[in-house]
Amino acid sequence: MVHRQRMERQLDAELRDHIERQVADDVREGLDEAEARRRALVLFGGLEQVKEDCREARGTRWADDLGRDLSQAARVLWRSRRFTVTATLAIALGIGTNATFFSLVDAVLLRALPYREPGRLVALSEWHPQRGRYGKVSGADFQEWSAVRATPLDEIACYWDRGYTLTGTPQPESLVGWQFSGNLFALLGATPRLGRTLLPDDARPGRDDVAVISESLWRRRFGGDTDVIGRTMTLDGRPHTVVGVMPREFAHPGGRTDVWTPLVLGADLLGNRDLHPLRVIARLRRGVPLERAHEEMTRLAAQLAREHPASNAGWRVDVRPIRDLYVGDVRPLLWLLQGAVFLLLLIASANVGSLILARAAAREREIVVRLALGARPTHLVRQFLAEGVLLALVGGMGGLLLAAVGVQVVPRWLGDRLGQLPTPDSVSGWISPSVLLATAGATVAVGVALGLVP
User: Fold this and answer.
1) Which helix (H) or strand (E) holds 22?
2) How many Cβ atoms are within 10 Å of 417's Cβ, its own excluded?
């Protein structure tokens, strides 16, 4: 901008110098100064016309035209403030709701899960057509799956929910807890903020009780002390040594969590095949497609049914991508809501378009006069486009402000439906670059459409 202004000043000074020299030459030839200046201006064709030719020659005319069109559009919209406020509010509502729900769709359905090689992660579940149970696995079957080397699974881990009461402090607190098999953190590719994660040895008999805590609990109960590793916390009356702190960004498959402890598969669990308490996550071997994994696990389930007919007859195994298991119920709802808010944007744009048409009819005389004075039709089209885009940009910025609030509020409004999403921190709290890009594209599209309405 500063460089262009300097070039404009230099161009103006140079052109005026040429004119003054021509005037001086004509005065020396006997013309009076007024006539000499008139002839010089006629000879050069007018300062502004020469400037336009120079700008076009150096390739900056488009920038000058754009700046002039936007400036004129801003003045026109400012003179019609009631229309401008009404239109921008309508656009902001449409853009804001779309950005809010697309943030959810992006985080839940489109964005890659924050795990190591998420495409190979699957969730395994057992279900029975008559008993209606679905989603969890018996401890004995999990042990059988883990022992079989010829499965399509490279790694397999399990977990279950376990609430705790934190005591030994002036204010006891109920904590959301999960018990993990020692390899689950490694299977997910999780990296702690401090210390380490759980290890298989942590679940062996005779080992001291250990715990990994969330960043939220670390800040809330330990004041964010970096020396927390090795300190003791009392859970349900038992002392646990803190061995690690997970970062806020860690996306736990079960949702919000305060503490993780080792999962011990005891004899009471492994000896009762009728109990199905475990949630199971596995990593497929490289090159194994999901369909093949499902077929092989189905054969393994049939084999276990033959070996243990009293407990396993009729039980089937389902293998799903980990995303499908956690967002299966939410997927139709989110796409339905996204479609609804997109329709809202179309309705808002149509209403603003109607206002622009009515306003264009009122400006018909102005348009006729400008055409009569020599304005090019393309210039008028550019002017209307500038007004439409500027209107949409202001509305789009307002929409982003609404979306910044919406991504905080809407997940809470959806309640438990979003409670088990594997990406809790990416569902709410911020707008991703992909959402910003999509919102910018929608804003420009709305602006161009509104600009072409007249």
Assistant:
1) helix 2-28
2) 14
Model pLDDT, residue 60: 52
Strand, coil or helix: what is 287?
Answer: coil
Is the separation of the CB atoms in 410 and 100 below 8 Å? yes
If phi > 0 it is left, if psi is from -120 to 50 it is alpha, else beta; for residue 255 that is left
Residue ranges of the domains in the chain?
2-58, 65-113+329-452, 129-314
Are the CB atoms for 242 and 231 separated by under 8 Å?
yes
Looking up tokens 């899960």, which residue turns up? 113
User: 235 pairs with which residues across the strands?
Assistant: 166, 238
52 is written with which tokens? 């336009």
Q: Say if strands 316-321 and 210-214 run parallel, antiparallel, or are unpaired.
A: unpaired
* 28-32, 41-45, 390-394, 425-429 — most confident range: 390-394
Angle at 57 between CA 25 and CA 26, to 5 degrees: 5
Q: In Å, how far from its chain's centre is CA 50?
A: 50
How much is the average pLDDT of 377-398? 81
Give 290-345 pLDDT, tens digit per residue: 999 999 999 999 999 999 999 999 899 999 998 876 676 677 878 888 899 999 99
Q: Distance between CA 166 and CA 174 in Å, rounded?
A: 6
The CA distance from 102 to 441, in Å, is 13
Q: What single letter denotes the amino acid at residue 387?
A: E
User: Scanning the structure block, which residue is given the tokens 């403030």?
Assistant: 81
- What is the number of other CB atoms lying within 10 angstroms of the CB of residue 223? 8
Q: Residue 163 — φ and ψ, nearest 5°?
A: -80, 145
CA 423 to chain centre: 11
Distance between CA atoms of residues 121 and 296, nearest Å: 16
Residue 126, SS3 per DSSP:
strand
The phi, psi pair for 262, rounded to 5°, reads: -65, 140
Q: At what angle do helices 330-362 and 81-105 cross, to 10 degrees?
A: 160
Query: What's the CA gap between 101 and 293, in Å, rounded?
Result: 34
User: What's 182's DSSP letter?
Assistant: T
Alpha helices, H only, 166-289 = 184-188, 215-222, 267-270
Cα-atom radius of gyration of the chain, to the nearest Å?
A: 35
The amino acid sitting at 382 is R
Q: Could you report the per-residue pLDDT of 26-49, keeping only the tens digit for each? A: 777 777 778 777 776 666 655 555
Q: How many C-beta atoms surround the C-beta of residue 281 within 10 A?
A: 23
